[in-house]
Amino acid sequence: MILVKTEAEALDLRARIQKRESFEELARKYSIDSSASAGGFLGVLNLTDLRKEFQNGLSGLHPGEIGPIVKVSEGYALLQLLTETESRWQTQNDAALRALEQGQFREAEVSLLAAIREAEHFGSLDARLASSLNNLAEVYHAQKNYAAAEPLHKRALAIREKVLGPEHLDVSVSLNNLAGLYQDQKNYSAAEPLYKRALAVKEKTLGPDNPDVGASLINLAALYRDQGNTEAAEPLYKRALAIAEKAFGPEDPNVVASLINLAGLYHDEEKYSAAEPLYKRALAIQENVTNLVSLAELYQDQENYAAAEPLYKRALAIDEKTFGPDHPNVGMSLFNLALLEENLENYAAAELLLRRALVIYEKTFGPENPTVKATRDELTGVLRKMGR
Question: pTM (2 decimals)?
Answer without folding.
Answer: 0.70
